[in-house]
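Structure ticket #2291
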Amino acid sequence: MSKHDDEVRLRHMLEHAREAVAFVVGKDRSDLEASRILSLALVRLIEIVGEAANRVSKQGKNSFRKFPGHSSSV
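Resolution: structure written out below.
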């Protein structure tokens, strides 16, 4: 896997995470419970972020160890 592939995946993760945050701005838990569409959209965006994260190479993950919240068990 190339550095370029990792960069693309990281960019996708950021884009989809930002989109998920934008969906919930000004909303609370009751809005999420009342809207099946919102709930499904958020679940899908989180799945996309997780799938992309799983595809980042081990080398790519190691290069980001300095970020807070990064687990040392890669």
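Closing remark: DSSP finds four helices and no strands in the chain.
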